Amino acid sequence: MKFKFDLKDKKTNIIFTSIILALAIAITAITGVQFRQFSKFQTQFYTQDVDEVLHFSQFSPKLKGTVGDSEIYVKYGNQNTVLVAKPDKVSAYQTIESLKGANIVGIDGSTQLAAAINSGLTVETKPSSHQAILALDSGADVAVLSYGEARQGINSGAIKVLPIEVEKVPSILVMGGTHPNEPSGQMTAIMFLENAVVERGILYVMTEVNKSAYTHSQPQEATTWYYDLETKSGGTRTFKFGSRATNTNEQWPNPDVYVHSSGQSLSSSEVRNINRAYPGSPTGNYTERVAFAVAEFIRQKDVTIVVDLHEASPEYITINAIIYHQDSDGIAGQAVSGLSGSMESYTAETKNGVEIDGVEITPQESPKTMHGLTHRELGDYTNAYVFLLETSNASQGKYRGAFTESLITYYKTDKFYEFAASVDQNKGTQLLYARPVSLDERVARHALTIECIINAYNKKGVSRKVVQTAESRQDQVGKGGDPLGKLIINNMPEYVDYIDNGVGYYLKDLA
Amino acid sequence: MMHFYNVLTVLYVAFAVIIAGFIVVNLFKSKKVTDKIIGALALGMFLLRIFFIK
User: Fold this and answer.
1) B48 with A31: Cβ contact below 8 A
2) Are A179 and A185 in contact (CB under 8 A)?
3) Going by DSSP bridges, is the β-strand pair A355-357/A347-349 parallel, antiparallel, or unpaired?
4) Is 50 exceeded by the pLDDT of residue A290?
5) Inside any domain, residue A91
6) Residue A249 contacts B, CB cutoff 8 Å
7) Global pTM?
8) Residue A136 belongs to what domain range?
């Protein structure tokens, strides 16, 4: 019998429609399961060298138990002065007054001992840190040590750090993952998390500032969800490429117009953009709660320098730039132009003999009328020196071709962007404000700029401004405060190292 | 408040079932292959969106 395909035939119609329906439901299920896996996928970071992990919910309690309760990784400087005691004695020594009459030991000739004596403490000296820790076992109440000497005991739980500061040190917060579709920001934060050795000061790293935005993808962009990088030993580390905005699971619907707490009106979807939500609110919408956690953390920890890492599409005007709060202009200017290691004057030769030049990084002051951004609100509402950095990212742009992993890493160039760059070069147009470059180079630019900011801070000898409001802080710029001394962070790869070896080389293998 | 939330959820799921059922019925009713494929795709998109999986 010859089969004739005719949908008017009832039996044929039922069989054919059922097959299509079954296929559609199968594809829907596979897509749904895959996306659910992406949504739940937790990017792993190497945290073996981290001294402490804080959570956003400690600073914005309503985030407790939600996806946006992100981590803050803390690395304390080896030279930082700490007062330590046996765990059973910690509760007795919570203030500097409570130490009067206590039996305190310190190491002869150490800077930590000097800091304790300057704070008015009476300290019995011991020849070494080993002797000082042993003294805690045999009657001494408190020991004054460097964090490097105390680290092993702290990590094992044998001793605990007292909440008493006898020496203030500067600190830096490196913010990656504000926008999960700007991968070099997160990757630079990871470079600091996994490589930095802090000699003096405190390093705070956020790898996923808006963690909710990592649980979904950028709508209508057909983006790749993951990208892999090869480590030094040949292992693979997987990272996510998420969305610019908070997931609608956490915050929906968008209002018709987003009105910021300052009164500024923006388009509706910007209500889920954390970099339009600062200074945030502990009881506001979800994005504002996350923003508040960041601002409150900076206030409570009195962070000295804040660097928020971003990227922009090559056809966007604010690119290869440091955007700084007006209180940070001295540091920004020095970071960009004054230092011999600044990006503009940077030249080096790669392993292959290719001469690389640093690009010009433009300093731009944060507009006072543009609200909700880190460089405006964190500068106004905290005592930190705030900077926002931008690099050129092809995977955010609109000229691009197919969205593949290589568009993120740019290890393989995109022919449309290369064409636009060649038109600019040959015809003098300005289709692009900056040529897209590889993830290695974007991370290198971010990392070198941060290094320049730290060097500028150290070189200028900026005194900490201890004030309460933006207005009074304005009056006190350069007029003194508590000097915090230098911030010293070592072991970070050089600019040329990233280009030579790739960022993957500096990622640690996960256990 | 919780009661109100539950009522809304039931209404939401009921609407989802009605709309999905409507699409399925019309898939069988239509006599053109293209209509059937478009309907099947629409059903997939609808279900993904309903369950917040974009």
Assistant:
1) yes
2) yes
3) antiparallel
4) yes
5) yes
6) yes
7) 0.91
8) 81-161
